[in-house]
């Protein structure tokens, strides 16, 4: 080794470089092959804000600021594909002069990944343009919101409840580490969001192992029941057994208040900036609330063994009902339910669940305002939504039985569906008769 060093040091270093490149290439190839047998998932770890030291906080603010400088310098260079980050960066100041600043926190890997992002953005836009779509350009930015941390154990590292991020002093406390258990960590992204900083970690797991874990984790339906779900704008989710789930989540006063204030703030002022941050934070909270409510409702519904629902168009309701539906979790619940194929059977949207009479089989159109179904042919009456939900069970069992997995065993199609169905409904028709008189007297 010493001989070759003395002999021709330049060649040796060149050889070493090539050797390193070759090794990198091989490991990339090996990783690619491995990934084919793995499932991918990303997990959101939130950095606990009130546990940060002031130096950590400053560093986190600074790293996104420096990222913005780099981004804008790269764009200003006019040729992002040959742009290389330097040690310092030229920054345009408020009075339009250029100022040379030093990178203090932004690491070289983060710089590289930022430039990579710009390049891939440009490429994406170019492809879209080729497809004939209207596109903008990748331009200057006022804020960089995410930073790539490509290498686990180098650019970031997670130990226990804490994470270390390259060039951010010390360890930061993160929430949600439990999700990573059993997963192999790959790249991560550090983001600056309305409610603070997050670390989104991309992870991999062997497909077979993942399947086993999911099987083990899956909660068996606790109730040996079959239900139908009618999703309507007015009464939320109505089950065939008569239970109702409220799907409206109230918009908080804070969000409304802050939104009203925005118009009064001077454009470009610090106050307006702060106000916008508050709106963003309130909005994020609202979204979290909606997701939480949707998770709970879906979990409750999935306690039933088989669920029949209809492929109704939540999007169309959005158009028709606008703001009201924005605070509804209906779409979210539906999305969560449809992920459970086999347990949840989705009926075609063309099935006349509302119109069909279970007694005589004729169809009667009922205007949306009328809450009571009344058959025009035989006079059968029942609460509209409950009846629709029960018709789903009936239709589902007779027409969609092939979609219910047979290995679950205990399930057998009901012999005479319509009979038990009518039996079920008798009590409702009695109740609805009472309701009808109440509404009639109220309208008088
Ligand atoms: Zn009828």
UniProtKB/TrEMBL annotation:
Entry keyword annotation includes Phosphoprotein: no
GO terms under biological process: DNA recombination; transposition
Region named Disordered: 256-277
Every Cas12f1-like TNB domain range: 333-390
Probable transposase IS891/IS1136/IS1341 domain location: 223-303
Top-level taxon: Bacteria
Matching Pfam families: Cas12f1-like_TNB, OrfB_IS605
Biased composition (Basic residues): 257-277
GO molecular function terms noted in the UniProt entry: DNA binding
Keywords assigned by UniProt, alphabetized: DNA recombination, DNA-binding, Transposition
Family: In the C-terminal section; belongs to the transposase 35 family.
Name this protein carries in UniProt: Transposase
């Amino acid at each position: 080794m010493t001989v070759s060093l003395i002999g021709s040091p330049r060649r040796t270093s060149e050889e070493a470089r090539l050797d390193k490149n070759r090794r990198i290439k091989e490991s990339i190839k090996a990783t690619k092959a491995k990934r084919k047998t793995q499932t991918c998932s990303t997990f959101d770890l939130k950095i606990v804000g009130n546990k940060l030291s002031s130096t950590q906080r400053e560093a986190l603010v600074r790293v996104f600021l420096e990222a913005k400088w780099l981004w804008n310098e790269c764009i200003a260079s006019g040729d992002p594909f040959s742009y290389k980050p330097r040690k310092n960066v030229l920054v345009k100041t408020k009075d339009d002069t250029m100022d040379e600043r030093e990178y203090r926190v932004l690491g070289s890997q983060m710089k590289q990944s930022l430039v990579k992002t710009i390049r891939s953005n440009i490429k994406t836009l170019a492809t879209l343009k080729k497809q004939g779509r209207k596109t903008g350009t990748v331009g200057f930015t006022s804020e960089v919101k995410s930073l790539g941390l490509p290498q686990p154990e180098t650019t970031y590292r997670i130990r226990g409840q804490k994470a270390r991020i390259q060039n951010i002093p010390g360890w930061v406390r993160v929430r949600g580490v439990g999700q990573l258990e059993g997963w192999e960590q790959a790249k991560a992204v550090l983001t600056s969001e309305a409610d603070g900083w997050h670390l989104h970690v991309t992870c991999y797991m062997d497909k077979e192992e993942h399947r086993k874990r999911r099987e083990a984790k899956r909660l068996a339906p606790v109730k040996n029941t079959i239900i139908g779900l009618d999703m309507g704008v007015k009464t939320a989710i109505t089950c065939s057994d008569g239970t109702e789930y409220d799907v409206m989540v109230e918009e908080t006063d804070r969000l409304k208040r802050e939104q009203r204030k925005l118009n009064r703030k001077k454009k470009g002022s610090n106050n307006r900036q702060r106000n916008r941050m508050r709106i963003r934070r309130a909005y994020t909270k609202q979204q979290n609330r909606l997701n939480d409510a949707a998770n709970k409702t879906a979990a409750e519904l999935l306690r039933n063994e088989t669920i029949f629902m209809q492929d109704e168009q939540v999007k169309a309701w959005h158009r028709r009902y606008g703001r009201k539906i924005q605070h509804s979790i209906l779409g979210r619940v539906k999305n969560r339910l449809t992920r459970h194929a086999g347990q949840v059977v989705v009926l075609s949207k063309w099935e006349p669940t509302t119109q069909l009479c279970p007694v005589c089989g004729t169809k009667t159109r009922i205007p949306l305002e009328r809450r009571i179904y009344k058959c025009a042919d035989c006079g059968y009456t029942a609460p509209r939504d409950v009846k629709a939900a029960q018709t789903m069970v009936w239709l589902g069992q007779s027409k969609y039985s092939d979609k219910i997995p047979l290995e679950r065993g205990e399930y057998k199609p009901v012999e005479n569906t319509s009979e038990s169905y009518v039996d079920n409904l008798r009590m409702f028709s009695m109740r609805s008769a009472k309701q009808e008189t109440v509404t009639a007297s109220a309208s008088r």
